[in-house]
Task: inverse folding
């Protein structure tokens, strides 16, 4: 989908986490970050490739993500205390969470993200987690749910009118909830003015796009204002946040793929 392409491009920047320490445990985290970034770059290239050029993309992101997880697992096993002392423990867990997410290991991803959030919430831990790592890990459970929501659209059977409408309502309800959750993370003072806010706004637009796809997957004669209105509300809120954080070209792109739906007049 077009929204995923744009968001995937931002994802490369999102995973470019920073370490400056030259100690062996820090270099282990750096190698894991490099592997994560390499996987994200490949994933982005695949998403941007059309069908004709896709054959030229021979590499897979998964081995790179797996390397990132292995490197972090080793670092946490051998140097946990050193990572904590250098304020790199949260970064290591963030790499673990994101790499696990991209491998489809959502249980492991959520567990690692929860550790980061717990660490950030602990009293006196203001320097234990970098702001972007905290925000990413607070958003990650919702990002995982959004991926699942997008896959659920393909399961809508247009011929099953009652069933398809029930699934549509469920997707619209969940989409509204997930977009609001991302907006809450985007409003955290710790990431005010941070580029990660653009990623969160794009992810909100992706939620709206999933809702739009769901609307197009049922018989249009059965779609009512009660179905269109939640999409319009999510779309308007997502584009508002995007306009506050991204450039005009990015906003125009999403406005093009997220048209506002006209509500039918009451009889």
Result:
């Amino acid at each position: 989908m077009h929204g995923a392409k744009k968001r995937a491009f931002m994802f490369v920047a999102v995973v470019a986490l920073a370490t400056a320490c030259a100690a062996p445990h820090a270099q282990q985290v750096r190698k894991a970050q490099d592997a994560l970034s390499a996987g994200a770059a490949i994933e982005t290239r695949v998403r941007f490739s059309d069908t004709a050029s896709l054959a030229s993309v021979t590499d897979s992101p998964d081995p790179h993500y797996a390397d990132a997880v292995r490197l972090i697992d080793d670092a946490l096993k051998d140097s946990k205390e050193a990572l904590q002392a250098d304020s790199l423990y949260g970064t290591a867990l963030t790499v673990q969470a994101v790499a696990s997410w991209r491998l489809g290991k959502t249980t492991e991803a959520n567990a690692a993200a929860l550790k980061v959030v717990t660490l950030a919430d602990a009293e006196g831990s203001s320097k234990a987690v970098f702001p972007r790592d905290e925000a990413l890990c607070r958003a990650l459970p919702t990002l995982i749910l959004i991926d699942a929501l997008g896959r659920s659209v393909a399961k809508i059977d247009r011929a099953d009118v009652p069933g398809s409408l029930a699934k549509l309502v469920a997707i619209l309800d969940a989409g509204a909830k997930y977009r609001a959750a991302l907006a809450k993370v985007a409003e955290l003072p710790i990431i005010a003015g941070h580029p990660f806010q653009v990623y969160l706004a794009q992810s909100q637009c992706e939620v709206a796009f999933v809702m739009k796809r769901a609307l197009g997957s049922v018989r249009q004669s059965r779609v009512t204002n009660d179905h269109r209105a939640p999409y319009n509300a999510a779309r308007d809120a997502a584009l508002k946040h995007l306009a506050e954080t991204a450039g005009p070209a990015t906003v125009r792109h999403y406005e093009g793929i997220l048209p506002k739906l006209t509500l039918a007049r009451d009889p």
